[in-house]
Amino acid sequence: MARAPQERESQDTAQEENAAQAGNTTNVEAQVKDNPDAKDETGNGEETGAGDTASVDGQTSADGTSGDGSGADATNAGSTGSAEADMAASAGTADGIISSTAGSGADSRAKYTGDISALDNTLQGWGQGVQFDSLNRPQGAVTAQEKYGKYSADFIRTDESDAKRIYLTFDEGYENGYTSRILDVLKEKNCPAVFFVTMPYVKQQPELIRRMIDEGHIVGNHSVTHPSGGLPSQSREQQERELLDLHDYVKENFGYEMSLFRYPAGKFSEQSLAIVQNVGYTSVFWSFAYKDWDPDNQPEATAALAKLKERLHPGAIYLLHAVSSTNTQVLGQFIDDARAAGYEFVPYR
Predict the structure, then answer these.
(1) Do residues 45 and 127 touch, judged by C-beta distance below 8 A?
(2) Residue 67 to residue 154: CA distance in whole angstroms
(3) Can you spell out the DSSP letters for 160-175?
(4) Is 126 exposed, middle or buried (0-12, 13-18, 19+ CB in 10 A)?
(5) Model confidence, pTM
C-alpha cells in the first residue's frame, strides 16, 4: 500500500535525523520525486536538533545542521520535472562554460582563476554548530568563513562594521500562506530581508515575488530544481544551469537581477563554491537556524522567540522558513527585541 503524503514526509524526516545522529553530514533528504508533497526538510539538519551534525574541514559538531534549513523548500514533482526539462533544453555549451545575463554586477567581483576541476568536490553538509566564541558567534561559521570566504561565500559576516548587524533571510520552496503576513510585518517594522526562491516558487507565486521586489527586499537564487543530492552531485554545466536558468527567468519576467545564492539543502563543496562564484554570485549560508521548517510540528512561540534572541551575535545571518506559523507569529517581537538589544537589521550587501 502506498504511503500517504504526510506519512512519507514524516518517515523521510526521521531518516534525516537518524543519519545526522550517526554522523552522516550529508543527510538523507526528502525524496521529492517519491513524494509530491515533500517539504524537502533536510533543513532540520541545518536547523539544529540535538544530535544533528555539521562538518567543516572534517570537524563535526553536535548541533550543526547539515541539511537545508530550507527544509521547507518544497517543490512538487511536477514542477521539478518541468524545471529539469527546461534546463535540459537550454543546456549545451562546451566545457560547461555557459553564457548568461548573470553577473552584470559581478565584473568587479573576484573570480577563481585556477583550475576549478582540480578543486575538492567532496560533498559537505552545512550547519553552524553548537560551539560559540566569546562574542556568541558559532565557531563553525567563523571557521568556515576563514576557510571559504575567498570564494565570495558568507557563513557569517565578520567585518568590524557588522558588529551589531543582523542579516535576515527566508527560504521559499513552496507557499504555505504566511509570506504575505511576513511581508506585512517587515513593512511595518521597516526591516529588510532576503527571500531565497526556487523556479517553481517563482512561477507559482509571481505576485509575491513582485511584492518582495517592490517593497525593497532582495530576491535570492535557490536553484531551479533544488536537487536533493546537492549541487556538487551534478556536473559543472548542470550546476551553472541551476543558477542561470532561474536568474534569466527572473530577469526576463521581473526585470530583476539576482546576485545571492543559497545552496539547496545546504550541501556544497569547495569546487561548487568556485563554480557559483564564477557565474557572478555570492554564496550565502547562515550562522543561525533552528527547527522551524515542519508546518505540522512547529516550535512553541515563547521557546522559539527565546532561541532567536539568545543566539544574537555580531554579523549574524539568520535563516528562517516562511512556511512557519511560529516565525510569522513572533517575527515582529523578535525584530523589536533585537533592536532593543542594540542590533540593526540591514540590507544584504
Answers:
(1) yes
(2) 17
(3) GGGTTEEEEEEEESS-
(4) buried
(5) 0.76
The pLDDT score that the predictor gives to residue 186 is: 99
pLDDT single digits (tens) 102-138: 443 444 467 888 899 999 999 999 999 999 999 999 9
Q: How far apart are CA 16 and CA 28, in angstroms?
A: 5
Spell out the residues 6+ positions from residue 120 whose beta carbon is closer than 8 angstroms to its own: 269, 270, 271
* Active-site residue, 217 included: no
Q: Are 56 and 124 in contact (CB under 8 A)?
A: yes
C-alpha cell at 90: 537550454
Catalytic residue among 222, 226, 247, 321: 321
**Furthest C-alpha separation in the chain:** 58
3 state SS of 344: strand
CA distance 279 to 285: 17
Rounded to the nearest 10°, the torsion over CA 138, 140, 141, 142 is 90
Task: Give the model's pLDDT for residue 81.
Answer: 46
The CA–CA distances, whole Å, from 120 to 60, 65, 116 equal 18, 21, 9
Q: Is 59 exposed, middle or buried (0-12, 13-18, 19+ CB in 10 A)?
A: middle
Listed in sequence order, the residues at least 6 apart from 282 whose beta carbon sits closer than 8 Å to its beta carbon are 109, 152, 153, 154, 259, 260, 261
Please identify which residue in the block is written with the cell numbers 544530535: 51
The class level of CATH for 61-74+119-349 reads alpha beta
Tell me the CB-side half-sphere exposure of residue 120, using CA atoms within 13 A: 9
For the chain, what are the domain ranges? 61-74+119-349
Q: In the annotation, is 107 catalytic?
A: no
pLDDT at 191 over 80: yes
3-state SS class at 54: strand
What CA–CA distance (Å, rounded) separates 290 from 98? 36
Q: Which of 73, 171, 245, 294 is catalytic?
A: 171
